[in-house]
Each structure stands twice: as structure tokens, then as C-alpha cells.
Amino acid sequence: MLDALQWDQIRVCAKIGMECTEVDPAKRPASMKHIIDCLAEIECSTHVIPAGGTRELLLVHPSVICFPFEPNKAITCPLQLTNNTDKHVAFRLMDNSMESSFLRLPLYDVVPPNTPYTLIVTTQKKEDLPRKYIIDVILQSATLILGDDDHINTFRSQPDKFFQETGNDVQVVKQKALYTLTHIATSFSKPILSTVKVHVYVEMHLSCLDTNRAKQWIIIGDENGHVGFWDYPTQKKVDALKVSASRVTCIRFIERKQWIVAGTEDGYLHVYSYETRIQKITSLRVGAIENLESRAAHTHLAIHPTQPYLLSVYGFKVKLWDWDVGWECIQTFENEELMTILRVAFNPNDTFATASMDCTVE
């Protein structure tokens, strides 16, 4: 028996067929793009199974994941998930087709409350346009219960088991991923035309980024210790350098000094000037950990908006650095529970906040 979506598909195809036979040419489909848009619109309808109500846990944009096909290239598309709730939301993005078309799916992570989160979805390299150019993608999301260690640990160590045990409290969004021909643009691609298309290959994962409003640059760090500069109006890569053999875990522009600061997984900060050309200023050791393979610690940074201060996080320590006195560490703070700190942020009123692995904010 046909379901509602299949009946809608038949209805749209019949309508297109009738338009094609119109005697008046003005009433016929204006272009191939018009036909593709009509078919894609019905194919890419989103179905939501609400969890305990009608409010969506994660809002998804764009409604269709479009990949302009190019032979033998990994193709990327940003997918933005927005959490408009006051709770942490865990998600799992899966490829529902028989033969996987994507790199590194399924993907798992947590979106903090009232926060947008951007995924970069990447296709496998294919020599020819797949015969099945529309692919089923499923996004599952569920509220993460803070304070319930078993609940949190299950998601971290066994995310598939977490979603299985959550059962009816999981919200499901069924989407379509669509291969398009580069010379036939669809209306769904319009909201993301301004994005920089960074092709991600298997051996290189992008790990962090920052933006420079004055120069209109995006800076991107990867797991191999490389940093790339992109001009987003021209969508061209303008420079690149290797700062470390370790993964770049956080990168920041200091626009008023025309510097960048890169934090790496081995516990170092690397400072470079880009005023006239890329030139190294200094490297600082911010922390050390015996077992880096566990990735139990990584460097995160925050820049004070007006003072010459930088906060660094590594392990359970926060250090305050003053670059006006030769990058001296002027104060060190420790998490009382010796819990790994994941993020740090300045308040302009000379305070700061940290977020730790045990889901506490101080």
C-alpha cells in the first residue's frame, strides 16, 4: 500500500506531466530547474516524531542537504542544528541507505541550550553520479539529563545504546540528501551560497575555526596541526601554515593586534602575526598530561575584549596570560574537583566562566 508521501509524489509528477502538455507555452514548466525543484520539494519534506509534545528539540537548516556533484571529489554541505530549548540535546545523524554515501556517519554530539551548532556533512568520492541521487538521512535527538552520570556516560561511551534505551523520548527528523548537477542549481542551495566550501578528506578532520570581521577571513585548524586562512567573499584560500604536529583544538584571532593564537592538543599556544606576512611571535607551554592518547585534555582559549589578557585551559587548570608583559602567566586557577575543563569564556566585567566534563559551569 502506498503511503502519504508516495501519493504526493504521484500527484506532483502528474501535475508536471499535465503542465508539459499545455497548448500555451507560457503555462509549461519554465525550465528543467523548475521541474527539479518541484520533485525535490516533495522528496525532501521533513517528518518529525515529537517527544512528549510538539516542540522540536533541534531545528534543522537547510531543509534539504544539497551536494553539487563533482567526479572523484568529496563534497561538503553545512547542516545547522539550533537548540532553542533550555536543556542539552544529544543527537545522532545517520545514513539510512543500504550503501553508505557519506564519510564518518553516524555522527554524535551534544548541542548546548539556546545554541546553534553546525555540522559539515561530507560525501564519499564517486566517479559517476549515483543512480540513486536522493538519499535518506535521519537525525535523532533526545534531552540529556544533567546530573545523571549513568545517562551521560552511556551517551559518551555507547551512543547507539543511549538512543535505543531512550526509546519513545527520541525525536526523529527524516530528511533527504540530494546530489545536484553543478550547472542546475536548485532553490534549496540558495541559503548557503555564501559558505566557503572546504573539501574534507579522510586523512584530515577540521577541528576548529574563527572569523575576522575586518579582513573578512575565516581561519580553520585541523587535526594534523595545519592552519588555513580563507577569504570568504572570494571563497579562496589565501594562506596556510603548520603550527604543530598535534591537533589544533582551538584557534582565535586577536584583531586589534593582528595576531592569531592556536592552541594544540599537546598543551601549547602558538602566536603568529599576520600584519604584513605570517610571522611567528612565540610558543607557550600551557600544560602537560601524561596520556595524551586518551584526549582527556585539550587546549581552549578566550581573549579579553579590551585588556591584553588571554585565558588558556588545559586539563583542570586555567591560566591567565598578559601579552603586554611578554606573555607572562600572571595567575593560575584550578578546578577544585580536578575535573577536566572543556571551555572557558570571558565576561567583559573582568570575570570568566568555565564548563567542565562533569557538566558544571563555574
From TrEMBL:
Top-rank taxon, per record: Eukaryota
Pfam families referenced in this protein's UniProt entry, alphabetically: Motile_Sperm, WD40
Domain MSP: 57-180
Keywords: Repeat, WD repeat
Keyword check for Repeat: yes
SUPFAM superfamilies according to UniProt: PapD-like, WD40 repeat-like
Gene3D superfamilies, A to Z: Immunoglobulins (2.60.40.10), YVTN repeat-like/Quinoprotein amine dehydrogenase (2.130.10.10)
Keyword Hydrolase: no
Classification via InterPro entries: Coatomer_complex_subunit (IPR050844), Ig-like_fold (IPR013783), MSP_dom (IPR000535), PapD-like_sf (IPR008962), WD40/YVTN_repeat-like_dom_sf (IPR015943), WD40_repeat_dom_sf (IPR036322), WD40_rpt (IPR001680)
PANTHER family per the UniProt record, alphabetical: COATOMER (PTHR19876), COATOMER WD ASSOCIATED REGION DOMAIN-CONTAINING PROTEIN (PTHR19876:SF72)
Protein name: MSP domain-containing protein
